[in-house]
Amino acid sequence: MFPATFPKPQLFSPGKDAPALGWGLLAPGWIADLFVSAMHQHTDQRFVAVGSRSADRARSFSVQHSIARAYDSYEQLVADPEVDVVYIAAPQSEHLTLGRLSIAAGKHTLIEKPLATTADEARALAAAAQNAGVLLMEALWSRYLPQTSVVRTLVNDGFLGDVRSVVADHGQAIPGYPHHRLHRRELGGGALLDLGIYPVQLDSMVLGKPQSITAIGGLLDTGVDAFSTLVLGHGRDVQSTLTTSLAVRTPSTAVISGTQASIEMDGSFYMPTTFRLAGNDGDAMVWNDTTGVTSMAGLSWEATALARFVGEGRIESPLHTLDETISILETLDEARRQLHESASL
C-alpha cells in the first residue's frame, strides 16, 4: 500500500543541533572549490585555513573564497588551533597519508570519497580515528541528501515489499587521456573507485553487504579499470546489477525494485534529483526536492551533517558508518581484482 504522502526528509539544516566549526582544507582543487562554495553559501560552517604544497595555489584559493589563512604545507594547516575539522580533497592515493596526518593532530576529518584506495587502508584510518577519539567520515554526499532519507524510509518501512534488486549506473566520459588522474594508476585512478562507488553504496544502503560478487569489464593500457558491470548476489532471489564507465557518459539512473513497488531515481541519482514511487498495479507518486539546494550545492548537506555528529559527540556517521565504508571498499577491491585477473589471462 502506498503512503498517503511521502515521508518528510531528514534535513541537515544550519542552526539545528549543529555547532559552527572552523574548517581547514588540504589540497585545493576542483572538488574543493565546489565544496567550499556550497558550504559557505548554504551553511554556517566556515573554512578558516587552506593548505597546499604550493604557496601560490593556497593563497589564490584563500582569496577566491575569503579564507583567512593560507599555508604552504599540510603540517602547518593541521597544527592551526582554530581548525576543528580538516577536509581532505587530494587524489585518493594521498588519502591514507593525509588522513593519518590530520587524525594525529587531533582533528575531526572528512575525506573525499573514496575514503582510501583499499579496504585495508580504510581500516587503518578507522583504527587511527577511533584511537584518537576524533570523527572520521567519508565525503559520500549522496547519503546526506534529502531524497536519500525519503528513499531509506520507504525501503525500511516496507512500502516496496521485499526488495529484490538494485539496478544503477554511473558513467562519465573522462577527458585528458592518459594524464587525467582517473587514468593514472599511481593516483588511485579507475572508474570503480571514483564513479562506481555511487552505485555500490546505493546497493549497500538498501541490501547490505553482498554475499557474492561477479565483475566483468576492461582496463585501459595505463592499468586502471575503464568500464565494468558488477552482479551482486544478496542471497536467494536477490540480485543487483551495477555498471560504471570512464569511457562514456551514461544516464546515471537507479531503480530499487521490490515485490510491491519500485523507486525509480532520475539521473543523476547520486545528486539532488527526483524519483518516482511506482506500484506494481500502475499507481505512481513523484517526489521532488523542494529545498532549493540543487546540483553540486547539495555538497553542503554533508558539511552540516558532520557538524551535527560532532555536536552529538560521535566519532563516525550513523548514516554511513566506518564498517560500511570498509565493506563497500571490500566490494570494490574484489571487483577490481577480478577485472585485473581476467585481463592477465
From TrEMBL:
Keyword line: NAD, Oxidoreductase
A Pfam family per the record: GFO_IDH_MocA
Annotated Gfo/Idh/MocA-like oxidoreductase N-terminal domain residues: 29-138
UniProt cross-references to InterPro entries, sorted A to Z: Gfo/Idh/MocA-like_OxRdtase_N, Gfo/Idh/MocA_domain, GFO_IDH_MocA-like_dom, NAD(P)-bd_dom_sf
Ranges of residues in domain GFO/IDH/MocA-like oxidoreductase: 151-264
Domain of life, source organism: Bacteria
Family to which the UniProt record says this protein belongs: Belongs to the Gfo/Idh/MocA family.
Protein's recorded name: Gfo/Idh/MocA family oxidoreductase
Species: Paenarthrobacter nicotinovorans
